[in-house]
Amino acid sequence: MRLILLGPPGAGKGTQAQRLVEKHGIVQLSTGDMLRAAVAAQTEIGKRAKAVMDAGQLVSDEIVNQIVSERVDSDDCRRGFILDGFPRTLAQADATETMLAQKGMSLDAVIEIKVDDDVLVDRVSGRYTCANCGAGYHDTNMKPSVDGVCDKCGSAEFKRRPDDNAETLRTRLQAYYKETSPLIGFYYAKGMLSSVDGMADIDDVTAEIEVVLAAV
Ligand code: ADP
Ligand code: ADP
Ligand code: ZN
Q1: Can you tell me which atom of ligand 1 is nearest the CA of 84?
Q2: Which of 86, 116, 150, 188 could form a disulfide with 193 if both were Cys (CB 3.0 to 4.6 A apart)?
């Protein structure tokens, strides 16, 4: 199964992708995670991407297209993958079609997670992840069952993203509306788009996504 999760920053793409990974045994390909790993490793790509990401702008199509194309060739992607945060521009959507066709692959679904803008500040400013395994949490919406201990791996170390603040979120939202939201029409016109209510509780969003997947 190959899917795209679409939605603004804080919509719940990463949260839902982690659940799909566990349930379906497919991998999560988050371009944000890949770029943050490149920044941490101080690779050439990471050095070029850091300032752009900190400012909440989009990294160039050329860079992200290439990292996704290389990643998709890995063995662990054979059973399928979830594209989380990619494609994010019409040029990336075109490149995705070409790339998948060249590899003899096709998409099964594009799922848009719809949320109201006014919850996004709270979603991103309360977001944190386990520094060891990457599991996602939220200050009020999704706390670990034991305070300060990751449910998945038991680590007590957590981290927050430098771009998860109200000011950078404004730039990221502008980028979403200008560059990414046209993808909704793009995939709708191809008959591939399904939308789920991202304002619902996390479990209910997961259930709605499973209904969509059962139909593809
Ligand atoms: P995205 O990957 O789309 O940017 P995340 O999955 O990281 O978004 O979610 C952003 C934050 O909101 C996280 O802290 C997550 O725990 C929380 N969250 C995700 N989905 C929901 C939901 N349906 N209701 C409430 N909080 C949510
Ligand atoms: P969120 O889910 O909160 O929107 P991501 O982790 O997907 O955040 O992305 C973080 C940042 O990484 C973006 O603001 C952007 O600078 C960069 N980025 C991630 N994916 C892409 C992409 N497909 N194209 C361009 N830039 C990207
Ligand atoms: Zn953990």
Answers
A1: 2
A2: 188
